[in-house]
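Hi W.,

Here's what went into the run:
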Amino acid sequence: MRYLFRTHYQQDITLFRHNGDRFWYGLLVLLVLVAPAILGEFYIGELGAVFIFAIAGVGLMLLVGYTGLISLGHAAFLGIGAYVNAVLLAKGVPFLVTLPLAGLSTALCGAAIGRPTLRMSGLYLAIATLAFGSIVGTVFQKWTAVTGGFDGFAVPTPTIFGYPIEGATGIYYVSLLVLVFVLWVSANLLRSPTGRAMVAIRDSEVSAQSMGIHLARYKTLVFAVSAGMTGLAGGLFAHYVRYLAPDAFDVLLSVQFVTIVFVGGLGSLRGAILGAMFVRLLPQLIAIVRDDLPFGIGRLPGLEPSLFGLVLVFVILFQPGGLNGMWLKMKQWFRAFPFKRQTSFRRQKSYARSERLR
Amino acid sequence: MILFQAQDISVRFGGIRAVDSVSFDVRQGEVFSIIGPNGAGKTTIFNLISRIYTPTSGKLIFEDKEITTTPAWQIAGLGIARTFQNIELFPNATLLQNLLIGRHCHSRVGVISELVFLPSVRKAELRHREKVEDVIAFLGLQRYRDSLIANLPYGVRKVVELGRALCIEPKLLLLDEPSSGLNVDETEGMGFWIEDIKKDLGITIIMVEHDMSLVNQVSDRVMALNYGKVLAMGTPHEVQTHPEVIKAYLGGEVAA
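Here's what came out:
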C-alpha cells in the first residue's frame, strides 16, 4: 500500500500525485505511440476513432459530469466542427488553421446555445439541446451551397508543413495529440477556481451563488468549452469518415456521447476515455462474434442499439460510478488484497446531482 | 459604528407579507440575533440580505453602500458570507474543495490562464490553500480534510459550512440556525466558535437561532419577529421578558 505523505500544498495541485502515476501514464503514452508499428491499419483506424470520441467525451464530461448540465445536442457540435474544418480545407486554408478554427467557431456556437438555456436544467435542458441538434442537422441538409446537402462531399487530405496526413496512422497521431491537449487543458481547468465553480454549480446552485459564483457566466463558459472540444473532435472526425454527409450527425450520435459519459463514470476524465473505448469497441466486438452466435441472434436487426441500451440501464442501476468506478474498486481490491471486506464494495446509493432530474 | 442597516424592508409573496416594514441596524463587531416562531420571516430576511430575494420596498445598506439591487453573486465579494439552515454544501466534493470554493470571490485569474495553468494561477492557488488551512486549523477539521462531504456526519458538516463562510473572509457573517440538528455538546462548541469568530477574527454576526441558551450565550442584541413584524429589540434579557414575545411563543394573554 502507498501512503502519501504531504509536505507541501504543491502536492495537492500537481497533475500526477506520485512517481507510480508518472510511470504508468508514461508507459501508456509510449505504448500508444508505438502501436501503429505493431497493429494493422484497421485497428489503428478504430483506435483513432476511440481517441476522437474520447475528445468529445471529455468535452461532454465537463458539461454533464462536472457541471451537471445535460446535452442531447452534442452531435450537432461535432457536425459544426467537422463542416467548418472540411469546408475551409476545401477552400485551401491550411489544416493548422482550420482545426483550431473548427474548435473556436463551435465554442462560439456553444456559448450561443448556452446563453438562452441558462435557466433550464434536467429534462427541459435535454429537450432544448435535442431541438438545437435537429435544427443544426436540418441546416446541414438544406444549406447545399456549403455542405453539399445529402450528397455530401469528400474531405480533402490535410497537410502539415507540406507533409500530407494520409491514412489511418496520420489521423491517429493527430487525434492522439489533440486528445492529450484536451486532457491537459481539462485537468488544468478542474484544478483551478473555474473547475471548483463548476462542481459547486452541480451540487448546489443557491449556495454557489452566495459564494460569489456568477451562474450565468460559468454555465455559458462551460457550454463553450465543452462545445469547443467537441468541435475539435468534429474536425478530426471529418478525416476519419473521409466523406461528409449530414446523416452522420443525428440524435443517435448524441445519445452515444451521453452513453460515453454515463458508462464511463460521471465526474472523471478517465471515465470519458473508458466510455469512449466502450462505445467504439462494443460494435466491433459484436461484429467479430456475430457469426458465431447461436439461433441467428447475430443477424437480428437492431442488436447493437439494444445492447447499448441494456448496458446503459445496467450501469445506472448497478454501477453508478461507471467503468471508472469499477476501475477504482479493482484498484482498491488489489491494494487491500487479503483484507477485502464485504462492506467496501457494497453498492452506494448516493447519486451525483446531475443524475437526478430536478 | 453601524455596519449594516435594513430600512423599512418588506417582501410580499402573493398575498403574504413575509417581512413587513422591518428596520434594524447592526453595529460593527456585535452578534445580532433574530428570534421568532416558525414562519416569522427570519430566513426570509437572510435571503433578502444575500439577495436571493428582492425586497418589495425598503433599503439594505452595507458599509454606507446601498445593496438593495446588487446581484446575488456580488454579495460575497462585498464581504457578506452566509450559512444555510439545512446545510448547502457541495456533497460530491472534498472538504478542502468546499472551503476553496469559499475563496472564489477572491480569485482574480482569467479562464485562459487557467486552461494552461500559468505560474500566476499556481501561485494564487497556493495562497488560497494557505488561507484555507488557517480556517481548517481554526475549526479543528484537519482529520476530515480529504473526505467527501457526503461521507461526513451532520455535526461536522455544520462546522464545515461555517468554515466555508469564513474562507470568504467576511466582514458580516449570516448564520442561519447554526445549532439546528446538533446535540447539546456540539451546540456548546458552536457557541464557543461564534464567540471566537467575534473576538479573534472581529467579524460581525447576524444569527437566526431557536436555541435560547445559545442566543443568551453569544448575543449582544436580539430582535424578535412574528408574522414578519418586529416585536421587540434589545438585550437578550429585555427581549425574553417582553410581554409581546412571551405571547407570541406561549400564546394567549399574559398574566401581569
